[in-house]
Specification:
Length: about 240
């Protein structure tokens, strides 16, 4: 399974993930620029230590001000909609490109953004369904359980949420977007899914470097899921169609 994943990375998967990572980074910079300018700071403050915390604190104080409340709510609403649409475009392009990889089609920037257009609406719909409904239910359940049984540190909560997301939400989201079979997928492949999800969850509680590694691992987790699904259904012969080094 992991050998097939490596083959998929070598034959276009790594390239598709890199396009997504660079695009997401540019989007994040643009978001920080907008938030910084709105909060009254300078562009140089973006790279200052604790700049994001300062921006957040300023926005909260602005929201508490009657004069700026409406403007801040409007801005946050616009940014939320923009974020969802951006997620649909970038994530749709990523997962669609990963489908091309496991089905033996070449990857390019043009094909990536063509997939973005083809999968954007499906991605937005399923993202809202799984993350905003199922995800919030899982988050609430974890909070309730550990608040009732025993207090739990925030890092442990982050670990559990990340683990459950990897075990349940991400596989369902990925397979739904590309239209692959979902029934029985998690239970039949719980071993490799658990190993990968555990790695993501462990890095998620490590500050800074761990967050970067988590993002990279999460990016390629979608490919890992599609590799498993494709091999299970015998719809693609990796050793025949991929170049084996």
């Amino acid at each position: 399974m992991f050998r097939s994943f490596q083959l998929a990375l070598n034959n276009g998967g790594a390239k598709a993930g890199l396009i997504y990572i660079v695009s997401s980074g540019l989007l994040l910079v643009m978001f920080l620029v907008i938030m910084t300018l709105f909060s009254g700071g300078s562009l140089l403050s973006i790279v200052a230590p604790g700049s994001l915390d300062s921006i957040t604190e300023h926005l909260i104080s602005q929201m508490l001000s009657k004069e700026s409340f409406g403007l801040v709510i409007t801005l946050l609403g616009a940014l939320f909609v923009f974020g969802i649409i951006s997620c649909g475009i970038l994530l749709g392009g990523l997962i669609g490109s990963f489908r091309d990889v496991v089905e033996g089609r070449p990857i390019s920037i043009a094909s990536y953004f063509n997939n973005s257009l083809n999968y954007a609406l499906r991605t937005i719909g399923y993202f809202c369904l799984y993350f905003f409904i199922l995800g919030l239910m899982i988050f609430a359940l974890i909070r309730i359980i550990f608040l009732v049984i025993t207090p739990i540190e925030i890092n442990n909560q982050t670990f559990l949420i990340s683990l459950f997301t990897g075990l349940v939400i991400t596989p369902l989201l990925t397979l739904s977007i590309v239209g692959f079979k979902k029934r029985g997928f998690i239970t039949q492949n719980i071993g490799p899914i658990f190993i990968y999800s555990l790695a993501v969850a462990i890095f998620s509680i490590i500050p800074v470097i761990g967050q970067i590694v988590t993002f990279i691992l999460q990016t390629y987790y979608y490919l890992f899921i599609l590799v498993i699904s494709t091999k299970n259904n015998n719809t693609f012969n990796f050793t025949k169609n991929f170049t084996v080094e």
